[in-house]
Amino acid sequence: MKQQRVVKRFRIFLEQGCDAFIAEHRVSVGRWNQEAMTALANLLETEAVPPALVKALKKRPELYRQLAEAVDQALEKDYDRCIREWTVRRLRKAIGGSPKLRNALDQAEANFEYSGKNTRQLLLDYIPDDYAYLYPAARTTERHFILHIGPTNSGKTYSALQAMRHAKDGIYLAPLRLLAYEQFDSMNRDGILCSLKTGEERIEVPCSTVQSSTIEMLDERHFYDVAVIDEAQMVQDPMRGGHWTKAILGTWAREIHVCMAPEAENVVLRMIRQCGDSFEIIRHERFNRLLPDDVGNVDFPYSVEDGDAYIVFSRSSAHACVAELQKRGINPSIIYGALPYDVRQNEARRFRDGETKVVVATDAIGMGLNLPIRRVVFLETEKFDGISKRGLTSTEYKQIAGRAGRYGQYEQGLYVSPFQMKRAVQAVNEPFRPIQTAHLLFPEALLGVDAPLSSILRMWKNATVNEGYSKDDVSQEIQLAELLENESSDKALIYSLVSMPFDVKRVPVFELWRDLAFECVRRKQVRLEKYIPDISRLCREADMEELESSYRQYDLLYYFAENFDPTLMQRLIDERKMVSALMMQMLATSKLPPRTCKRCQRPLPWNSPYALCKQCAGLR
To answer: How many domains would you assign to the chain?
Structure first.
């Protein structure tokens, strides 16, 4: 009976992984008690197990990582050292002659150098308990914060930027490349010499006194007279929030202006007080009223009015809406996240200049874009957030609806939601909910831990941080690091590669990153030229989807060129601009295809949730 129980447990582990094994032993996820570890050791001791283990590991090497993680977590709880050492010996014997698995085991054994210490103690060894001291330069200066707090369309950013325009050395930190470019362009047109620095582009203006950047480009070791941090409510974002936390804790400047929505006030003030800095608050009120449009049902596309912004939440829905409007002789602007920033800027310009009378957009317009919108129409009220489809939050309703009613052009802003009007009104008028936590970036000081990068990242992911903070999600970085660690142990190189910003879910972009990253870790160099898209072919025959994909590939190639082959940077910039120009021309002169059945190509309603028409669906 004991043997049967052991085999049953082992099968659960092999087939379903750590979580199922933990559940079988009634142990909370991510924490192993001594009984569970003893059971794991017994599994490995059983005579019939090693051949099965060898076979399973050869087919699914990731199972080894789960085993190693289990052992490592047992160490974290300071369990019997001999159980760990004995288990490792059994693993080494079971693995046999597989070089890749032996390499993985060697890397995992490096973790045991810090055996006997729990994760909390390890973090204290490498990072300060007070996170403000992650940025020592900023601690040498008495900083003064001016907080600009108010809703959308209240002039927060404009007010903050006035101080920076007269600085000897100033920096504007934007949430989006589009907004960084907008301020760069505006300042230079006003005679203020301003450089641009984003992850994908550098424009150095000789003798410039200020710089417009995306938030990720902050150099905390450079001293500024004046800094402006825009959209600071983003500290709560699980993917990028750590960059705003870094900016607030670590910007080295005498005067720092922070623009934010009211819900971020408490969390930002807490960090400022933690740093011991002084502050003052300027409260901004919306320039005009934001009201629901009491027009009854909006019948799209038949009740279109000049100044309308039609809001949807996917590229396909945006294209379908534009196609519907074009069929009625209306050529709108279109703005969504997958478009390059200069294409979005051009579409916004066409709407501002009156070349187009309406705009179709995703929530990409919700952050900072200054557009002459009279009425916001929510054609959709659900969005996919990377995990699941969900309804809009109150903050999202406020942010997007607040774009209506440009000051100086309209006396009031209007919003309407044909399908969820009651919810929209409730959300826009709902009191702000204070943000409770600020996200932290992965502290690079932890790279000093003598262990593989994936193990360090996992340790950080599982660690408990101080109250009022949470951690940026490093799950993607862990997976990418594991992919490269079988090829190289160069931790700094692997970290630079997995930290590159790209969408791993975009298959062509991920495959390009994977190929380039493997070349880097194997040869310490990369032959970029062979990966550059064929620009002449793109000019002849590419459609909008391929142009968007190619632009993302150019962005990624630029990151690699900057680090491995700077001679190609100008070529990449020039060809990327050509791709943008093709997209601008296509949007201005061509009709987008309507939504059709994937099987028979019959027309579908613009908002059809199905890929097939009724006739084809009935054939399935």
So the answer is: 4
